[in-house]
TrEMBL record:
Residues 81-131 are annotated as: Disordered. This is Uncharacterized protein. It comes from the Eukaryota.
Length: 509
């Protein structure tokens, strides 16, 4: 028989020990307590029930051992009681909770509570707890993954516990980390970066017209890149035909290549507040990234639109404004509704974890739900073939990630799998040749990989007839109604007093 979550000596201090003798997964919430209390006291009001509930929870929090699942659940229930608009202070001496058992001896803790003495044993405030809940259709499938997260959350090293908190935020949005979700299976093949090909002769003639030494120096850089096998020459029609036939490289038009070269070579990052300060996020965005993103998508052949400061219409954010991405490449359906397939968040001078990483992942999951709900009838294979992309820009480098749907039509379950490390591109390392090469590969990657997935989604959204799949709509995950906020990045690790503790009470070992 498993040990009790609440020790016998603590149960003796409670007015209703029979409720707390249950397993933690059976404690439920405020409504379950109300049902239990009404059965015990048929004539009691809801105010008395919840006031009694608050007293019970305070006794548990004051006496349970810190760090246990029992106290985490108790504090989470305190938070739920507070959300319901009731606190322990609402219990007056004129309205005591009904109790038929023996009188309990007043303790020194009770006297301290009446005098307003601070509770020294509460590890975290109730508002710092989040309870993880799951749809029954996916809860069992995620059981091994949830156990891994529980072990990581309890780990003593800061890096591991921090990652567990971030993964728990992702899990609230039905997103799992690919490296952990497929742990133990065959490793997922890494993406092969395309090798760019350019019409070298035409590019050189355009570059030589400019009198700037920096631009003319680009001619020598392009010749070196070709000689070192970093890029190919697509000057002749035969070479272009062979390149397309073999698929060994991706041909980029000269106009787009010029955009990459000028963005890298002419980029002037000036301190935002004078000597000693660093370039601002807006300065880096305008000098380096704006032209690259604009020309990659707008000068292509796929009729893709871009949207700076894209608003995600996440429910529950109407009062404060919906979530907003710095950049999004979007496709349109027949009603001209925008659906982003590439979302970018910017920061400058960031730390090891991007301040908007969880923000971008949550926004992408929300948009994925929108796309799958708006597309006409989709089969299981079609859903699993879709993909959205995420770009996290930190200064002059970008980390590319992707999110894919994993849909099981038979079990009516759907989750999103996030791969954080598709590729990293650094565009300002001090080596101009390496910087231009990285910019060209980035453009080829965006055109070949990202735009390709965007066009797949565009085809699905415009397909006829407009018949929606009921099973897929039922399988779409229920996402939170409030957007994730950006993480303050003054320190590498969030102070313990401000950390959110995630509780998975339905996790049975």
């Amino acid at each position: 028989m498993p040990p009790r979550a609440v020790p016998e000596e603590i149960l003796s201090k409670l007015c209703y020990p029979e409720y707390w003798e249950r397993p933690i997964s059976k404690w439920g919430n405020v409504n379950r307590w109300d049902q239990f209390f009404t059965e015990k006291n048929p004539n009691a009001t809801k105010h008395i029930s919840r006031s009694s509930f608050g007293v019970e929870l305070q006794t548990l929090v004051r006496n349970l051992e810190p760090g246990t699942r029992a106290i985490e659940k108790a504090i989470s229930m305190q938070h739920g009681l507070k959300k319901a608009g009731h606190t322990v202070a609402q219990l007056s001496s004129d309205d005591p909770p009904p109790y038929n058992g023996p009188s309990r001896k007043r303790s020194r803790d009770d006297e301290d509570e009446e005098r307003g003495e601070p509770e020294m044993h509460t590890p975290l405030a109730p508002g710092n707890f989040e309870e993880l809940t799951f749809d029954p259709r996916v809860g069992q499938m995620l059981l091994p993954y949830r156990r891994i997260l529980e072990e990581m959350r309890r780990h003593q090293t800061e890096e591991t516990s921090k990652r567990a908190r971030h993964l728990s935020v992702m899990l609230m949005w039905s997103v799992v980390d690919q490296s952990l979700f497929f742990k133990g299976s065959e490793p997922v093949a890494s993406v092969a970066l395309p090798r760019p090909a350019v019409n070298i002769s035409l590019l050189e003639s355009v570059l030589m017209e400019n009198q700037s030494e920096r631009i003319q120096h680009a001619v020598m850089i392009m010749r070196n890149l070709r000689a070192n096998g970093v890029m190919d020459d697509a000057s002749s029609g035969l070479r272009r035909w062979l390149a397309r036939l073999r698929g060994i490289c991706y041909i980029i038009d000269v106009a787009t290549v010029l955009s990459a070269i000028t963005s890298v070579l002419v980029c002037s990052l000036t301190p935002c507040r004078g000597p000693g300060s660093k370039p601002s996020e807006n300065n880096i965005k305008a000098q380096l990234w704006t032209k690259i993103f604009q020309d990659v998508f707008l000068l292509g052949q796929d009729n893709i639109d871009v949207n700076w400061e894209y608003h995600h219409q996440i429910p529950g954010n109407g009062g404060t404004g919906s979530a907003r991405s710095d950049f999004a490449a979007v496709i349109l359906n027949e009603a001209d509704q925008q659906f982003p397939f590439f979302i970018v968040e910017f920061e400058a001078n960031g730390l090891s974890v991007h301040k908007d990483a969880m923000v971008a992942i949550a926004e992408t999951a929300f948009e994925y739900n929108r796309i799958l709900a708006a597309a006409p009838y989709l089969s299981e294979d079609e859903v699993n073939a879709t993909c959205l992309h995420i770009g996290l820009v930190n200064g002059t480098s970008i980390r590319m990630g992707s999110m894919k749907a994993v849909y099981n039509e038979t079990k009516e379950s759907l989750i999103y799998v996030y791969d954080a490390d598709k590729a990293i591109f650094k565009l300002r390392t001090g080596n101009q040749e390496a910087d231009i090469a990285s910019a060209l590969v980035l453009m080829a990657y965006l055109r070949r990989n990202v735009c390709k997935d965007g066009m797949v989604l565009k085809m699905l959204l415009k397909r006829k007839p407009k018949v929606h799949h009921g099973a897929l709509l039922a399988a779409l995950p229920r996402l939170p109604k409030q957007a994730v906020k950006s993480r303050p990045h003054e320190t590498e690790f969030t102070p313990k007093a401000k950390r959110v503790r995630f509780i998975d009470n339905l996790l049975n070992y």
